[in-house]
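[Discussion] Sanity-checking designs against the backbone

I'm trying to build intuition for which residues belong where. Below is a structure token string of 378 positions. I'd appreciate it if someone posts a full sequence so I can compare it with mine line by line.
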């Protein structure tokens, strides 16, 4: 029998996908393969069934946790764990890699060693994409973001049980959240560990679920969080806010919130590391005679004297006028690349003066083209 497809693959999401991303992917796939839109298509009908089955698991927080840990075996105990030929998983057979004693215990019906599937679980990390301006990346900025996340239910304090009631230890698994199944074969007995079907792997039973969170122990909340964006941050970098993710399980730590930064490009400045680059147009006359020009920077305007005879493409450097380093008071430099502008419209007087200049140039001797001609003749 062919093995079942991975649920994440069926919905087209990563294992780290959020609840909303899973739901969105489900709706997209369900619409694509819906029987009403694919009448008589057996392949689409099969895909639609797979999509629904995948969402029934990944759309449920507890089932998703079990699936992440045990795979398809979490919902098919009779399969013996889903390994080849009905064997348990490799880690189950090896007894946690405890040595040859554990191997023979598992193969021939010994006790083996139990693993703890019901220990602390760290909360999920969250990600938020933030777009800022070029100036905000240079000077830093404080912004408020709204984050939707799961939080412990205030009604039941995260227990999942209604007020005045308590959870009790599952009698089937003794609070372990797992049960051992033994299967016999011609070469001996095989032991496989699977989630307890009574408590769904939690080790506890809730007789009266909390009405607010419906026994989940968590509810969705929207929180406003202030984020300090440091000066000098670059496009693609991220800020991690510790403990602003989702709460953990069984005493596990809270996840983190990652703010991914996207910087809008500037109209004039280009960034490379902590250095900035600026193309600066100057007139033909200023390039010839030299002039003190005013150069804009992110911080102020700086006067700079360009020498006479400056050629187009010449680059000048202004020290410490680039971007600030995130973790220090060091600044990069600003590089100004000169581009000489050719005037498009000239008055008659300007044309006359340029022609006079052209005649004066002829008296200096051979020009570039004459030099080329002479080199060809040789």
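Best answer:
Here's mine. Compare freely.
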């Amino acid at each position: 029998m062919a093995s079942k497809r991975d649920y994440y693959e069926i919905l087209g999401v990563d294992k780290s996908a959020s609840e909303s991303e899973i739901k969105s992917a489900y709706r997209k796939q369900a619409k694509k393969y819906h029987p009403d839109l694919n009448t008589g298509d057996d392949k689409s009908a099969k895909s639609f069934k797979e999509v629904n089955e995948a969402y029934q698991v990944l759309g449920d927080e507890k089932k998703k946790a079990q699936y992440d840990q045990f795979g398809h075996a979490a919902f098919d105990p009779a399969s013996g764990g889903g390994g080849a030929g009905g064997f348990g998983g490799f880690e189950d057979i090896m007894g946690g890699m405890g040595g040859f004693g554990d191997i023979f215990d598992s193969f021939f019906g010994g006790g083996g060693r139990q693993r703890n599937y019901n220990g602390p679980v760290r909360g999920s990390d969250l990600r938020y994409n933030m777009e800022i301006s070029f100036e905000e990346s240079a000077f830093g900025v404080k912004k408020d973001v709204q984050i939707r996340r799961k939080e412990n239910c205030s009604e039941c304090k995260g227990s999942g049980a209604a007020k005045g009631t308590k959870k009790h230890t599952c009698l089937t698994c003794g609070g372990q959240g797992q049960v051992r199944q033994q299967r016999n074969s011609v070469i001996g007995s095989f032991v496989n560990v699977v989630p307890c079907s009574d408590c769904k792997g939690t080790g506890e039973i809730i007789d009266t679920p909390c009405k607010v969170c419906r026994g989940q122990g968590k509810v969705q909340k929207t929180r406003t969080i202030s984020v300090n964006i440091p000066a000098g941050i670059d496009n693609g970098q991220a800020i991690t806010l510790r403990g602003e993710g989702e709460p953990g399980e069984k005493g596990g730590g809270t996840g983190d919130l990652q703010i991914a930064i996207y910087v809008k490009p500037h109209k004039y400045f280009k960034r490379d590391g902590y250095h900035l680059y600026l193309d600066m147009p100057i007139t033909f006359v200023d390039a010839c005679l030299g002039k003190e020009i005013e150069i804009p920077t992110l911080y102020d305007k700086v006067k700079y004297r360009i020498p006479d005879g400056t050629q187009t493409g010449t680059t000048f450097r202004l020290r410490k006028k680039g971007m600030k380093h995130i973790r220090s008071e060091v600044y990069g430099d600003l590089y100004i690349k000169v581009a000489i502008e050719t005037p498009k419209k000239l008055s008659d007087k300007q044309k006359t003066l340029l022609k006079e200049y052209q005649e004066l140039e002829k008296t200096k001797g051979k020009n570039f083209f004459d030099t080329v001609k002479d080199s060809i003749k040789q």
